[in-house]
Design brief:
By secondary structure, the chain is α/β, with parallel strands linked by helices. The protein has a domain of 60 residues: Oligo-1,6-glucosidase, Domain 2 (Oligo-1,6-glucosidase, domain 2, Alpha-Beta Complex), CATH 3.90.400. The chain contains 15 helices and 22 strands. The strands form six sheets. An eight-stranded parallel beta sheet has the order 11-10-9-5-2-1-13-12. It has a five-stranded antiparallel beta sheet with strand order 16-17-18-22-20, with helices on one face. Strand 14 and strand 15 form a beta hairpin. The protein binds 1-deoxynojirimycin. 1-deoxynojirimycin binds next to loops.
Length: 553
């Protein structure tokens, strides 16, 4: 049995992230929805992914594109209905595709019934104990309870009015004001989310992606701190008691007879602390943001790959390989910049980029990612080679990060532009009714040049990004060496990454080898073999710069 079909399917799975409002619109209103996804399931099956992760599809005022959840058990009407979600899960399963839902436990929407009740019942009510309500500092309580800043910019506290209209308590929100943080020491919060997990696992979800997984528990002292030099332990990031939550969630996942998985969104600079989340009784996997943030440089990539494998080995969890998601500039754009690295404080939005170079590197990067041990993520549209849309007019921007920084941070809208499916003009088949394209304005405007990147344009073109992804995924499925398993580095010139996949000992006589050239010039292939796939044509038998090859022998 090939690894992707194995019981521990997540160890080798290729998981495609669907950002529902931008994937495909099936009811012609310019916003993606579940009908659109259902119509495009054959596309995803042909692409060859093993699972779909849906960014939040729940009832939400969409203050943070659905990461502000008003009802964790309902589908937002803009996306469809619960019955459609259930149908979608069935249809995907029938195609052999698994489903992962996104659970957002750190905060809910300010429209969630719990928060509405907390506001209505007033200070000191038990309803307020589910959140972080505190009185303000200074005369009249006019100042926030502490100096914490929101991750989206501005203060992490917003003042409320009492039921009689007088200025009242403040509440904590690590993200937007519409996303009040929940108090995870309250047993009702714990029970509620355990129940939400069961709700979706009972409906056939094969796993959950856990939003902001390291932020849930907080230091009750709520003391001021300097974000440049935070105390240890940090007041709200990666506190030791957060692990109890995931132990109880793991027990719930394990209570299902088939394998259901927990996937953490854990952004932590300390690789060892990151690995703690992957201990055998906690999460199954977590996104590898160190790989995503690595500059396109052989030594740095090799360091990140080695560190990743080293920290995962003792906990027995598979590594993951991620190039892009809905929170970061698309990697075609990142890889075309002078500085190709990324971190949350260094987004470089608007820095000059060479998209031809970025695309060439992106082609090599996907062959690297899919050859590394473990599972891999694809963010919708990267298989089309879409770039970050950096010239969106301010008037169409929707990301709270943009508004809370008064435009200083352009935010994440540029990686969330609706996909181009077909045709010569926007909306490029994104919107349909009864399956036929309709001309409506998509919720964010698409670049005109995306006519050359549409699914229709790329399908069948052997030089296209889409066909490279399809071919790589097909080979990965067929190969017994790819996915979970050992990696052996092979001797290679400076600036070249070369490794074999397969059982120990096969390194000297490898049957699958990946070579990636980042050396600045063409290199001879370091091993003999038949080229199974190449991200760009060889030149006089040499592997050009920024090019990757898969060899079999
Ligand atoms: C991480 C999500 O990926 C991001 O999109 C969201 O804004 C924050 N968490 C808050 O939920």
């Amino acid at each position: 049995m090939r690894s992707h079909e194995a019981a521990e399917w997540w160890r080798s799975a290729v998981i495609y992230q669907i950002y529902p409002r931008s994937f495909a619109d099936g009811n012609g209103d310019g916003v993606g929805d579940l009908a659109g996804v259902r119509a495009r399931l054959p596309y995803l099956a042909r692409l060859g992914v093993d699972a779909l992760w849906f960014s939040p599809w729940y009832a939400s005022p969409q203050a943070d594109a659905g990461y502000d959840v008003a009802d964790y058990r309902a589908i937002d009407p803009v996306f469809g209905t619960l019955a459609e979600a259930e149908e979608l899960i069935r249809e995907a399963h029938a195609l052999g595709i698994r489903i992962i839902v996104d659970v957002v436990p750190n905060h809910c929407s300010d429209r969630h019934v719990w928060f509405q009740q907390a506001l209505a019942k007033g200070p000191d009510s038990p309803e307020r104990e589910l959140f972080w309500f505190r009185s303000g500092r200074g005369p009249g309580g006019d100042l926030p309870p502490n100096d914490w800043q929101s991750i989206f910019g501005g203060p992490a506290w917003t003042r409320t009015s009492d039921p009689d209209g007088a200025p009242g308590d403040w509440y904590l929100h690590l993200f937007a004001a519409e996303q009040p943080d929940l108090d995870w020491e309250h047993p009702r919060v714990r029970r509620e989310f355990e129940d939400v997990l069961r709700f979706w696992l009972d409906r056939g979800a094969d796993g959950v992606r856990i939003d902001s997984a390291a932020l849930l528990t907080k230091d009750r002292a709520l003391t001021d701190f300097d974000p440049e030099d935070p105390p240890y332990p940090h007041p709200y990031t990666d506190r030791d008691d957060v692990h109890d939550i995931y132990r109880s969630w793991r027990a719930i996942a394990e209570s299902y007879p088939d394998k259901r998985v927990l996937i953490g969104e854990v952004w932590l600079p300390d690789a060892q602390r990151f690995a703690n989340y992957l201990r055998p009784d906690e999460l199954h996997t977590a996104f590898n943001f160190a790989f995503l943030g690595s500059p396109w440089q052989a030594d740095e990539l090799r360091r990140v790959i080695d560190e990743t494998l080293t920290i995962h080995a003792p906990v027995g969890a598979p590594a993951t390989w991620v190039l892009s998601n809905h929170d970061v500039p698309r990697h075609v754009t990142r890889y075309g910049r002078a500085d190709t690295s990324f971190n949350l404080e260094f987004r470089q939005l608007g820095a000059p980029t060479d998209l031809t170079l970025g695309t060439r590197r992106a082609r090599a990067a996907i062959l690297l990612s899919l050859a590394l041990p473990g599972s891999a993520y694809i963010y919708q549209g990267e298989e089309l080679g879409l770039e970050e849309v950096e010239d969106l007019p301010d008037s169409v921007r929707q990301d709270p990060m943009f508004f809370r920084t008064a435009g200083a941070n352009l935010g994440r809208d540029g990686c969330r532009v609706p996909l181009p499916w077909s045709g010569q003009e926007p909306p490029f088949g994104f919107s349909t009714t009864a399956g036929d394209p309709v001309k409506v304005e998509p919720w964010l405007p698409q670049p005109k040049a995306w006519k050359d990147l549409s699914v229709e344009t790329q399908t069948g073109d052997p030089g296209s990004m889409l066909e490279l992804y399809s071919a790589a995924l097909a080979l990965r499925r067929e190969s017994e060496h790819l996915g979970d398993g050992p990696l052996t580095w092979l001797p290679a010139p400076d600036g070249v990454l070369a490794f074999a996949r397969g059982a120990a000992g096969e390194g000297t006589d490898p049957s699958f080898v990946c070579v990636v050239n980042l050396s600045g010039g063409p290199v001879p292939l370091p091993v003999d073999g038949t080229i199974a796939l190449c991200s760009g044509a060889l030149e006089s038998g040499m592997l050009p710069d920024d090019t990757a090859a898969w060899l079999v022998r």
